[in-house]
Design brief:
single chain; alpha/beta; Glutaredoxin
């Protein structure tokens, strides 16, 4: 796993969202900061807590000119259920073949309850207006992810 770092160019991608509509990162470069957060599976406890924190922080994120994309290997149909169930107010993207996760370096070997398997590592990337990664979030808990993100965004804004 070769995770991208601050200063690297963000890989440009297009993925289907929870409605099956194609979303392209290139459409946001130069207009908004983009927070891309990778999570393992929609509607699981940790992923739900993380998504709800971002949902509840939307006003602050908007004030900081930041759009949020959650990316998982789930199908669009499952993402739509997740959005509806938890009233999510940001876009979820389906990376079924985990190509974008590979490009960002977040797909790799994981261990859980003594078993090893390949999956998404829970990391987030802030992409600046210039299309470069300005911050990598790799130290947080699902329940305080949104707070860590807002703290860094506040520091960058000053």
């Amino acid at each position: 796993m070769n995770t991208l770092q601050a200063g690297d160019n963000a890989p440009l991608f297009s993925l289907p969202d929870q409605n099956g509509e194609t979303v392209s990162l290139a459409d946001f470069i130069g207009k908004k900061q983009v927070l891309i957060y990778f999570y393992p599976k929609a509607m699981t406890p940790g992923c739900t807590v993380q998504a709800q924190g971002l949902r509840d922080s939307k006003a602050e994120l908007d004030q900081l000119n930041t759009v949020v994309f959650g990316i998982s290997p789930d199908e669009s149909k499952r993402l739509d259920k997740f959005c509806q169930r938890d009233e999510l107010n940001f876009t979820l993207l389906s990376d079924v073949d985990h190509k974008v996760a590979d490009d960002f370096g977040v797909w790799g070997l994981k261990k859980f309850m003594g078993k090893e398997y390949d999956g998404i590592h829970r990391l987030s990337f802030l992409i600046g207006l210039d299309g470069k990664i300005s911050h990598v979030f790799n130290k947080f808990k699902t329940k305080n992810h949104h707070e860590v993100v807002l703290e860094v965004l506040g520091e960058l804004a000053n």
